[in-house]
């Protein structure tokens, strides 16, 4: 099951340049939360602060508190420990190109020393079923490489890979921006189903996508979170003029 | 990323609705003048112009439908388009009420003139003002103007109730003018319906501007109003709100 995320007074920097300013946010467990905003607003930086990917960039640092369930992200938790509980899917599908479909999904578990073949089979099956890819690849699990799949299939493979380590939170950074409308529809349907078991945070440039998949939406602008509310409220009657200008296309 | 085409379409929708509003307002004015002057020619103008209003309604609905399908509007734009489609429907029904009044006047002209204890002209003025102000609130996007229309609705309701009481009494006292009194009563009811549509338009403007659904509140106000009138004899309540 998913867990909630609590973010308090988070500031993020790239060297001397501040990218996020005092972000406070509570993400509800087993819900999809979308983050929207123009390019450079800090939404991707923010999502990368949730699984300590931000600090992998030279000179980048984070201040503040992030808690994922009972886990304090920046206080005594290793990145490896954290990422077992927080999966991530990126803008561009990034399967391991030379590995088979099966090995792509099992990679995270194998890295953690998991060797029981029967259990691995079960988890691969379950993960590919959850990511709505099983029926399309079940006959070529070991024959085909991850890179041989279509873009939409590759992205669902990456979701299966993230799910295989049984995380509680799934972060998605523009997961459909490189996909056609049909593949996008499949991923959106998947998000809808996955939130029963996982807490999902999705960064998207596509406002209609946020409106379709998320119960809550946060609007970022210039490194600040301008508004956070139920998605219906953000898209029908936002409280802040800047949010309204953005969702109605009057911004910029 | 300012959406020029989208803004042009929104502006087109606004202008078409205003033209439609002008036609509906003109129809009510003509029907009321036809009543006060027993003017058959004006009645016929109202009937002839109904088809223009109906055509305008269809065109506005089509444009709104196209914008919804192609532009996926959000927030204030979405509220605007929803409000326009509802106002459109109300204006078409205002046109229908004007036709009902005109048809009633055409009947009345055939009958001898009767002295009736009802001031239809005063009621017409109040109703026409409600329609005009509801459209002004739309033009200017001002919820305060729309709020004033909601408050005027109670005045018109009271006029309709008074007309009912006085005309029923007249029918009892002078049965020979029953037909004329009944015509006047139905005109009063048609005018009150027009006021209800103006109220709906005002509520839609408030929804567009403030994002607030005041329909329930309006009903509560009406209920409170009705409660205050419990000392009055029972009158028909045919409000469509």
Describe the 3D structure.
The complex is a heterodimer of chains A (252) and B (241). With 252 residues, chain A is α/β, with parallel strands linked by helices. Chain A has a domain at 5-93 and 167-247: 3-Layer(aba) Sandwich (Rossmann fold). Chain A contains ten helices and ten strands. In chain A, the strands form two sheets. Chain A has a six-stranded mixed β-sheet, sandwiched between helices. In chain A, strands 2-1-4-5 form a four-stranded antiparallel β-sheet, covered by helices on one side. The longest helix of chain A has 14 residues, at 117-130. In chain A, 46% of the residues are buried. The model of chain A has no long low-confidence stretch (mean pLDDT 93). Chain B has 241 residues and is mainly α. Chain B has one domain (4-228): Up-down Bundle (Methane Monooxygenase Hydroxylase, Chain G, domain 1), CATH 1.20.58. Chain B is built from seven helices and no strands. In chain B, helix 3 (75-109) packs antiparallel against helix 6 (178-210) and helix 4 packs parallel to helix 6 (178-210). The longest helix of chain B has 35 residues, at 75-109. The radius of gyration of chain B is 19 Å and the shape is elongated. Mean pLDDT of chain B is 90; it is low at 230-241. The interface between A and B is medium-sized, with 15 and 13 residues.
């Amino acid at each position: 099951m998913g867990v909630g995320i609590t973010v308090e007074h988070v500031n993020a920097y790239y060297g001397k340049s501040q990218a996020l300013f005092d972000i406070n946010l509570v993400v509800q467990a087993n819900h999809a939360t979308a983050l929207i905003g123009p390019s450079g607003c800090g939404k991707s930086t923010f999502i990368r602060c949730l699984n300590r990917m931000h600090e992998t960039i030279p000179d980048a640092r984070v201040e503040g508190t992030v808690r994922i369930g009972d886990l304090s992200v920046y206080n005594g938790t290793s990145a490896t420990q954290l990422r077992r509980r927080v999966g991530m899917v990126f803008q561009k599908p990034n399967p391991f190109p030379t590995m088979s479909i099966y090995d792509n999904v099992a990679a995270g578990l194998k890295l953690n020393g998991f060797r029981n073949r029967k259990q691995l089979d079960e988890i691969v099956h379950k993960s590919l079923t959850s990511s709505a890819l099983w029926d399309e690849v079940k006959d070529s699990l070991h024959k085909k490489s991850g890179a041989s799949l279509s873009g939409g299939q590759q992205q669902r493979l990456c979701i299966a890979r993230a799910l295989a380590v049984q995380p509680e939170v799934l972060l998605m950074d523009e997961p459909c921006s490189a996909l056609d409308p049909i593949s996008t529809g499949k991923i959106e349907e998947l998000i809808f189903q996955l939130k029963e078991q996982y807490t999902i945070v999705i960064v998207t440039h596509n406002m209609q996508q946020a409106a379709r998949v998320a119960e809550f939406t946060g609007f970022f602008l210039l490194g600040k979170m301008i508004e956070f509310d139920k998605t219906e409220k953000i898209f029908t009657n936002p409280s802040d003029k800047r949010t309204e200008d953005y969702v109605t296309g009057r911004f910029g | 990323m300012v959406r020029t085409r989208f803004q042009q379409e929104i502006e087109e929708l606004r202008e078409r609705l205003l033209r439609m509003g002008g036609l509906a307002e003109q129809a009510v004015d003509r029907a009321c003048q036809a009543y006060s002057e027993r003017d058959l020619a004006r009645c016929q103008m109202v009937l002839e112009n109904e088809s223009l209003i109906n055509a305008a309604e269809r065109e506005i609905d089509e444009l709104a439908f196209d914008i919804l399908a192609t532009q996926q509007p959000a927030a204030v734009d979405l509220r605007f388009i929803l409000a326009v489609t509802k106002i459109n429907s109300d204006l078409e029904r205002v046109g229908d009420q004007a036709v009902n009044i005109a048809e009633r006047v055409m009947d009345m002209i055939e009958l001898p003139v009767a002295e009736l204890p009802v001031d239809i002209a005063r009621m017409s003025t109040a109703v026409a003002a409600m329609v005009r102000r509801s459209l002004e609130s739309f033009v200017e996007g001002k919820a305060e103007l729309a709020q004033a229309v909601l408050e005027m609705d109670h005045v018109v309701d009271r006029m309709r109730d008074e007309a009912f009481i006085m005309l029923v009494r007249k029918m009892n006292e002078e049965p020979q003018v029953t037909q004329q009194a009944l015509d006047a009563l139905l005109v009063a009811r048609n005018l009150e319906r027009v006021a209800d549509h103006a109220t709906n338009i005002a509520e839609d403007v408030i929804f567009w501007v403030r994002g607030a659904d005041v329909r329930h509140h309006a009903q509560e106000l009406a209920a409170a109003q009705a409660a205050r009138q419990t000392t009055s004899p029972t009158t028909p309540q045919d409000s469509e709100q």
